[in-house]
Design a protein that fits this description.
The chain is an all-alpha fold. It has 3 helices and no strands. The chain has helices at about 5-65, 95-100, 105-110. The radius of gyration is 42 Å and the shape is rod-shaped. About 0% of the residues are buried. The mean pLDDT is about 75.
Length: about 120
């Protein structure tokens, strides 16, 4: 019943408690001990349930694939009307040259008029 405690040991403990606490306090002590054990059991069950719930939620997150951002396709709606004064010519070269060509810093400097006057290897 209580592990290695047998009936003789339990009787001895009960007699000692009866002597120490007296016959009037012993029922109150038993009642409060029972309440505290019930409260401890309830708290441990709540803790176990909350941990199991957290584990279940975490496993659910790992199972569900993460949503990827949808590709935005720029298709004009049939109801859309072109805005006046806006150039819609698509035959013009791309406004973003870095998309088609690799980056060239020297070309950017020449276009901006800030080209270096000294060679790169020259020491001043």
């Amino acid at each position: 019943m209580f592990g290695s405690l047998g009936m003789p040991e339990l009787v001895i403990i009960f007699v000692i408690a009866l002597i120490v606490f007296g016959p009037r306090k012993l029922p109150e002590l038993g009642k409060s001990l029972g309440k505290s054990l019930a409260e401890f059991k309830r708290a441990s069950n709540e803790l176990r349930n909350s941990l199991e719930e957290e584990i279940r939620v975490e496993e659910e997150r790992e199972r569900t694939p993460k949503p990827t951002p949808a590709a935005v396709v720029a298709t004009p709606s049939p109801e859309a009307t072109p805005v006046s004064g806006v150039d819609t010519d698509t035959s013009a070269p791309s406004a973003e040259p870095w998309v088609d060509e690799p980056y060239d810093r020297a070309q950017d400097e020449v276009q901006a008029g800030v080209a270096e006057t000294t060679p790169r290897g020259a020491n001043l």
